[in-house]
Amino acid sequence: MTVEEALAIVETVLDDDEQLNDVQELIFKQCWEGRQSYEEIANISQYDDEYIKSAAAKLWKLLSEAFEEKVKKNNIKAVIKRYLRRHQVTLHRTQVIGVNLSGADLSGAKLSFANLSESDSSTDLQGAIISDYNTVSHEIIKAEDAHNQGILSNIKERIYHWNDLRFRCEEEVKIAEALDRTSTLFFPNSKARLTTPAGRQNQEPDFLIFHQGKWGILEILHPDTEKDETRDRLFASHGISIIHYCDANRCSEEPDRIVREFLDILSQG
Question: Which of 77, 178, 200, 213 has its CA 20 to 30 A from that of 252?
Fold first, then answer.
């Protein structure tokens, strides 16, 4: 396991408001790679050893609470491997239940989860005995949740860090850097709470930008994404009517030009 994969696991375990800062990430990476002397870490960074020690103490306390076991500089790998192993086992068992029972008529059915753990086929699962149908339904729901929200799927979602901010792709970082060069006020990946036709929901534009007294949204359009016109109308109803979509390749290749074009649109809108 690489240090980046380990950090991805840490990010999924920690709450959004508890993510590692630059110093904590530095300490984590160095300890993961075997540099467990705080003096040595200080020597290769811009911080003194006392500051590194203080930041490390807060880091191990934070991780100990998150992983629910004592975390120290010399046992990080063991803690994360145990955590990942536990969740792999959980995911494996719940996915077996969810997949093999999909489409089955479970009305009045009774299943034994003790037998499920030893079954290899859907025939065996459907013929297994004794539990309550409501319990079965509950377990299937938990299986779907584990599949959708489990640690393994989250690890695949790469998180990019820049100036203590978190981004979903490299193109977002490029745009953030370009906006920063213009001294523009912006909010990246900022969740908003809106009333939609389906009720109150969260919406998360890529960039919410304020320029010359006006608010606008800049979205990065990837090949596998499309414009969300329904969401755009909701933002427009709240006064944010300038919503500009830009191709991801252009954002990567000419972010400064993209930002200038957007700010011009915003100033004229």
Answer: 213
Predicted pLDDT at 216: 96
Q: Which of 122, 116, 127 is nearest to 93 (CA)?
A: 116
Cα 183 from Cα 53, distance rounded (Å): 34
pTM value? 0.45
What is the C-alpha separation between 65 and 70, in angstroms, rounded? 8
Residue numbers of the chain with a pLDDT score lower than 70: 36, 87-158
Contact 162, 180 (CB under 8 A): no
Tokens encoding 115:
């037998």
Using alpha carbons, select from 65, 51, 91 the residue that is nearest to residue 10.
65
- Which CATH code for domain 161-268? 3.40.1350.10
Q: Which long-range contacts (CB under 8 A, 24 or more apart) does 164-168 make?
A: 164/21, 164/22, 166/19
Instruction: Dump pLDDT digits (tens) for 197-223.
Output: 888 989 899 999 999 999 999 999 988
- Distance of alpha carbon 51 from alpha carbon 57, whole angstroms: 10
